[in-house]
């Protein structure tokens, strides 16, 4: 009797944790949806709701699984589904871990060229994320007066100027000389950022082994992978992201890293 009571208490605590954690992340993924919607917050919200439902209906789900496993066929199907789920979780965890680890480190050591990856501009106003990337680039250029910057980012919907031009304007205002700034203002995504920046490097005879990528912490791993696929071998500098951005963008980038690995 006592063992049954302890078991019920443990199950209750487990269910409570699932519902609490799922509810917390529902909030974390819903919050950015008022500003933007992408695969990160959509999938994150779905996963969070699934965790909450698992906690709410835990006993019924366990009972259903036991019922399925009573037959040999049901047990085989259940085992196969669980195996697939485990493989998926392991692959996703490895990708997410690599995104987090790479994003926490900056290993630039005075390279001659930095590639600064663009981000959203609202009208003529840079987003918080773009400002953060530009500030990091500015500090590097100030510390390395012989280095030059390739500013990469085209003009998207709702943007009156290209992301590259916006970054250039900010760096000029901060006192960086114009002859140190090279624009790549046609790209629409990270792959094009790198491919078109590579053309700028080739046109100006910049060393592809003497490069630094500047972008947000969550974006560094995938950006580095794309660079290496295109024959550029960069060091990295991370621009810190906000607490509320991390869940959405880390999830999105983990999926992006898996995609880049598969299509290598």
Describe the model.
The chain has 264 residues and is of the alpha/beta class. The chain contains nine helices and seven strands, in the order H-H-H-H-E-E-E-H-E-H-E-H-E-H-E-H. The protein has helices at residues 2-30, 39-56, 58-68, 72-103, 128-143, 163-173, 190-203, 220-229, 246-262; strands spanning 113-117, 121-122, 125-126, 148-152, 181-184, 211-216, 234-239. The mean pLDDT is 94.
Quote the average pLDDT.
94
User: Whole-number radius of gyration?
Assistant: 23 Å
The largest beta-sheet arranges its strands as 5-4-1-6-7
- What is the straight-line distance between the termini? 58 Å
How many strands in all?
Answer: 7
Features:
about 260 residues; alpha/beta; two-stranded antiparallel sheet; 9 helices
Concise description?
The protein has 264 residues and is of the alpha/beta class. 60% of the residues lie in helices and 11% in strands. Helix 2 packs across helix 9 (246-262).
């Amino acid at each position: 009797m006592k063992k049954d009571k302890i078991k019920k208490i443990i199950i209750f605590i487990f269910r409570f944790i699932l519902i609490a954690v799922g509810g917390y992340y529902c909030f974390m993924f819903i919050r950015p949806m008022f500003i933007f919607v992408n695969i990160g917050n959509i999938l994150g919200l779905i996963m969070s709701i699934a965790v909450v439902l698992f906690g709410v209906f835990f006993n019924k789900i366990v009972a259903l699984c036991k019922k399925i496993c009573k037959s040999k066929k049901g047990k085989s199907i259940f085992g196969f589904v669980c195996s697939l789920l485990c493989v998926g979780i392991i692959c996703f965890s490895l990708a997410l871990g690599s995104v987090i680890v790479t994003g926490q480190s900056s290993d630039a050591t005075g390279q001659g060229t930095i590639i600064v990856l663009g981000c959203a501009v609202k009208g003529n106003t840079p987003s918080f994320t773009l400002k953060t990337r530009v500030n990091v680039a500015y500090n590097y250029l100030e510390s390395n007066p012989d280095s030059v910057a390739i500013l990469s980012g085209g003009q998207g919907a709702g943007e009156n100027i290209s992301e590259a031009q916006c970054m250039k304007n900010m760096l000029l205002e901060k006192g960086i000389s114009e002859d140190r700034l090279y624009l790549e203002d046609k790209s629409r995504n990270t792959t094009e950022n790198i491919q078109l920046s590579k053309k700028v490097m080739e046109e100006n005879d910049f060393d592809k082994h003497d490069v630094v990528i500047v972008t947000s912490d969550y974006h560094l791993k995938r950006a580095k992978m794309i660079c290496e696929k295109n024959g550029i071998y960069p060091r990295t500098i991370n621009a810190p992201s906000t607490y509320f951005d991390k869940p959405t963008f880390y999830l999105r980038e983990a999926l992006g890293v898996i995609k880049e690995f598969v299509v290598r």
